[in-house]
Write a structure and sequence with these properties.
four-stranded antiparallel sheet, mainly beta, 40% strand
Length: 453
């Protein structure tokens, strides 16, 4: 993208100077309107950012849209605490694995957050009035002596400073033996699914003491275990359809109308294996770390270690599009295995029109691909480039041939700086990138054709 006017610009950057493990961001999620953005971290905290009103309007003469409102901290709360499973003598981390917003029904907002074992439903609401004139309480909230009450008063609401209240409404516990990797809200607005390594459960949002098991791939003998569930998501429009991915690189589309227990899938999406290129790492790098339905519901986007793939629901023989995210790492798989980076779980997202996909990489790089042209661009989320309104420059990994200024050699990549979590605004070209303990928000026009790698 270079320095052209079509490059995304930095909207806001939330940086922390000192990195602690608890501060590392583990999930990012916009709500349905894009006005709120929630992040969860390894310390069990959820931070909600709210988009301010636009600071500049539309300049009709220039034909350009002004900068959108920035995102500022709206509320912060502790979602999960460290716990201990006494039956299995295992510590349960407070790390937030996923956050999902519920469709807004009234003035309040609701979101689901989960760690490895427990899903919680939170209500986020505003209060700018305070009741006064209680009959049984004094002004400080203490209970009055009933014998001193000689008359009745009608309580009134008085204006007060705006307060954001976050309250737990439901706690969905004891539903999973293994670690929860996914939650997804159904389009019916009443149910959601939660998935762990071997099972997928369906919950009603009003019922916390029981769930319905819709997928169970646990073998009778655990020695026969060949794959685990890595991600799951409901179809955006059809409440009876959902998909889940596995460590074998397969996708299974399930229809709850066909059977209550969806152990038998409706469709299996699998890419034929190239036996000629099979190696020790083939199964590891083919594991799907994330799966997302397109907004239209026609396509699936998946991410494995080296590639991002688009699948058509009507074509189960293989992906219709394959994008190389960092193919230059194929020669480095041995060292990546030794430092455990090969097990990193990268997420992937669609833009609002399903025309561009985005996913993360190493060295604080993230990649965008235009589906129409198939071209991609590499951008960098780096604190040295964190000045507001700065135009992002494209980056390139040098693998041979003519070396250009600013190219980064493969051996110079920093594998501790990894972009795993991200989100795309549901309507606009605004993206949120989590880089360790920093949150970057980029906005403006995105044009992956401007420069390719």
């Amino acid at each position: 993208m270079g320095e052209d006017a079509e490059s995304p610009k930095i909207n806001h950057t939330f940086l922390r100077d000192y990195v602690t493990e608890a501060d590392v961001i583990s999930t990012v999620e916009f709500n349905q309107t894009g006005d709120l953005l929630a992040t969860g971290d390894k310390g069990g905290r959820v931070v909600i950012f709210q988009r301010e009103t636009e600071s500049k309007g539309v300049t009709e003469e220039a034909g350009e849209v002004g900068d959108s409102g920035e995102y500022n901290v709206y509320s912060t709360f502790q979602s999960h605490e460290p716990d201990f499973d006494y039956l299995k003598s295992l510590e349960i981390e407070e790390k937030i694995n996923k956050i999902r917003w519920l469709p807004q029904q009234n003035a309040a907002h609701f979101l689901l957050s989960t760690n490895d074992k427990t899903v919680k439903l939170w209500k986020v609401s505003e209060r700018d009035k305070r009741p006064e004139g209680y009959n049984l309480k004094d002004e400080e909230g203490r209970i009055k002596d009933v014998s001193t009450i000689t008359s009745l008063r009608v309580p009134v609401l008085r204006p007060t400073d705006l307060m954001v209240e976050v309250r737990p409404r439901r706690v969905f516990a004891n539903g999973h033996t293994y670690h929860i990797n996914s939650i997804s809200v159904n389009s019916d607005g009443e149910t959601y699914l939660s998935a762990d390594d071997l099972r997928i459960n369906m919950w009603h949002l009003d019922i916390t003491d029981r769930s319905f098991n819709i997928v169970d791939i646990k073998p009778a003998n655990m020695e026969d275990l060949t794959e685990v569930i890595t991600a799951a998501e409901f179809h955006p429009h059809h409440c009876h359809l959902f998909v889940y991915s596995s460590s074998k690189g397969t996708l299974r589309l399930c229809d709850m109308r066909a059977s209550a227990l969806c152990d038998r899938h409706t469709k299996l999406f699998e890419e034929p294996e190239d036996l000629g290129s099979r190696s020790f790492f083939s199964e590891i790098i083919s594991s799907v770390s994330d799966v997302k339905f397109s907004h239209s519901g026609r396509y699936l986007l998946t991410r494995d270690y080296l590639t991002a793939k688009v699948w058509d629901l009507n074509m189960d023989k293989g992906p219709v599009e394959t994008y190389q995210v960092h193919e230059y790492l194929r020669s480095k798989l041995c060292s990546l295995y030794e430092n455990d980076c090969i097990f990193d779980k990268f997420e992937c997202v669609w833009n609002s029109s399903d025309s561009v996909i985005m996913t993360g990489a190493y060295n604080s790089f993230f990649r965008m691909f235009d589906r129409e042209t198939g071209r991609g661009v590499t951008l960098e989320a780096w604190r040295e480039n964190s000045k507001p309104r700065a135009v992002l420059r494209t980056r390139r990994v040098y693998t041979g041939g003519k070396r250009r200024r600013g190219d980064v050699g493969v051996d110079s990549l920093d594998f501790t700086k990894k972009i795993l979590h991200m989100a795309w605004h549901p309507e606009e070209n605004i993206i949120a990138i989590a880089a360790t303990n920093n949150l970057y928000i980029f906005q403006d026009r995105v044009n992956p054709d401007a420069q390719t790698e």
